[in-house]
Amino acid sequence: MHCAISPAGARPAYVTERLREIGPRWQSDIRVAGDDTKALYLPLLRAASREGAPVLRDLPYGPYPRQVLDIHRPAGANRAPVIVFVHGGAFVRGDKTINDQMYGNVLTWFAERGCVGVNVEYRLAPEAPYPGGSLDLGLACRWLEQRVAEFGGDPSRICLLGHSAGGRTWPRCCAIPGPSWPRCHLAWPARYWCRHA
């Protein structure tokens, strides 16, 4: 199965205009600007199709309550590329699903294009001080290496991506040797795997 990446559709003009209003405030109050941006996109996400990407939720990869992940599995997946998303939150807040649509939508998008999408939750500080989040992600990757084939994924083609703190967590995961250290094959861009699967 191939994972076909295509450019996103045109965004509505009112969204572009509102983003122009929000943009200058981003540096002065990131939380409010972020909340405004999420509120702007939420109705669009709710209106988007969710067909063809069933989700298995809160599968445990470790013993702690936050050590769970969701798998977005495309129909007929067999040795499909695996895209793992790591949420942000300044290492002290955040969740793999911030509302009924967001963050899961990233993996739904990939699953609708033939990739297995994985949305990872990890422990936060102070419960898990540095490098706890990275170690949790390493544990999740080890779990995926051992189990993702059961869900149609190819354990030799796992691509990690994240935003904000999540974008800083996965590189540390690959740099910290230990019992949960995964074999990291850093390949960029992810679209290469999806196109050439």
Would you give an account of this structure?
This protein is 35% helix and 17% strand. With 197 residues, it is an alpha/beta fold. The protein is globular. Residues 1-7 and 184-197 have low confidence and may be disordered.
Descriptors for this entry?
disordered C terminus; 5 strands; single chain; five-stranded mixed β-sheet; disordered N terminus; 197 residues; globular; alpha/beta
List the helices and strands and how they pair.
Layout: H1 13-22, H2 30-47, E1 55-60, E2 68-72, E3 80-86, H3 104-111, E4 116-120, H4 132-147, E5 153-162, H5 165-175, H6 190-195
Parallel strand pairs: 3-4, 3-5
Antiparallel strand pairs: 1-2, 2-4
Task: Offer a quick outline of the entry.
This protein is of the alpha/beta class and 197 residues long.
The H-and-E topology, N to C, reads as: HHEEEHEHEHH
Pick out the low-confidence regions: 1-7, 184-197
Distance from N terminus to C terminus (CA atoms, Å) equals 7 Å
Report the radius of gyration as a whole number of Å.
17 Å
β-sheet strand percentage: 15-25%
Average per-residue pLDDT, rounded, comes to 82
Question: How many strands, which pairing sense, and closed or not: the largest β-sheet?
Answer: 5 strands, mixed
Strand-pairing-aware structural class: alpha/beta
Strand order of the largest sheet: 1-2-4-3-5
Per DSSP E runs of 2 or more residues, the count of β-strands stands at: 5
Helical run tally: 6
The global form is globular
Which range best describes the helical content: under 10%, 10-25%, 25-40%, 40-55%, 55-70% or over 70%? Answer: 25-40%
